[in-house]
Amino acid sequence: MKSNMTTWLACLGTIPFVIGAIFTTLGYQQLFFVGDLALMVESYGLIIVVFMSGVHWGALFK
Description:
Layout: H1 2-13, H2 15-25, E1 30-31, E2 35-36, H3 37-60
Antiparallel strand pairs: 1-2
Helix pairs in contact: 2-3
């Protein structure tokens, strides 16, 4: 059960990247509800990297 939930969460976490790639391919640079599309994808990627860094840092002290 845990593995299934992990897979679902990982897939759901890629949605902003997929949406960003699709809209960029279609030629959009701005979305009315987000603003700058490139900034949205970059910011989301940074949040993921910071979160994963915190997870590894916390595991180091365990």
